[in-house]
Amino acid sequence: MGPFLNKSWLFLVVCFGLMHYLANGATCKDCFVHSMAAHYPDSDEKGTETGECGFGSFGATINGGHVSAASDLFRNGVGCGACYQVRCTNSNLCSEKGVSVVVTDHGSSDRTDFILSRRAFKGMAQTTDAADSLLSLGIVDIEYRRVSCSYPNKNITIKIDESSNNPHYLAFVIWYQQGNKDITAVQLCETKNFTCKLLDRSHGAVWTTTSPPSGPLTIRMLFSGDDDGDEEWIVPVNDIPENWKAGATYDSGVQVNVV
Ligand SMILES: *[C@@H]1O[C@H](CO)[C@@H](O)[C@H](O)[C@H]1NC(C)=O
Ligand SMILES: *[C@@H]1O[C@H](CO)[C@@H](O)[C@H](O)[C@H]1NC(C)=O
What we know:
The protein is α+β, with helices and mostly antiparallel strands. The chain has two domains: about 35-145, Barwin-like endoglucanases; about 155-250, Sandwich (Immunoglobulin-like). The protein is built from four helices and 15 strands. The radius of gyration is 22 Å and the shape is elongated. It binds 2-acetamido-2-deoxy-beta-D-glucopyranose (2 copies). One 2-acetamido-2-deoxy-beta-D-glucopyranose binds near residues 192 and 215. One 2-acetamido-2-deoxy-beta-D-glucopyranose (NAG) binds near residues 153, 155, 237, 251 and 253. This is Expansin-like B1. Keywords: Signal.
């Protein structure tokens, strides 16, 4: 082979190597990603009720208090409610399984992707002694991957935010969203004449509208798609009653399957 052929051959090998690498990277959605995690500084075991997702008390206590603030994974609020398996990598202290946490807040600390509740942080340890050692480290190396959220015996539930004021202003968050998809859009529909309008995400997981229509309402949710499926509108079977109240919760009567 002359020098020209040699070069082409090398070029081909590099190309195939790169394609192979890219293809693996693109299909590896269950792979763990390396990062760092810290924990909330306060003495509270669970998360915070004032998390930037706007979930309120749900954001502190959901999933047994195994919750987290996310940095980039917060994704301007789209990441609120997403579940991640997080495990620390120190084989002396950390369990293989780690913990499953729900994103309920936004924040970062010294190159971390997660700030876990203390309960979740300790949950990554093999033993209670190891949990104390882990906690005193403050920041640890971790691996994480997105997993399905699971809320047995719960339907997707609409929580009307306390800032709401019927009939002038409606703000709400969506609780107990199972699975591993994002809610990327929400429509507010009048059930009597099926007129719908897209709502704005005001911050975190909070959707709002001024002058909501009168009459019973339905809140339709657009779930993101993936390689295997298209985006999908989930339509509740239960209406929000006309006399909805700030602070109240309404069972949608629907749930998405855990995959
Ligand atoms: C739909 O019905 C609601 C409640 O009855 C009413 O307020 C609204 O004006 C109606 N919208 C349209 C577009 O007809
Ligand atoms: C969920 O909604 C269904 C109706 O669609 C209802 O039969 C069921 O009782 C609800 N589950 C809970 C836990 O509220």
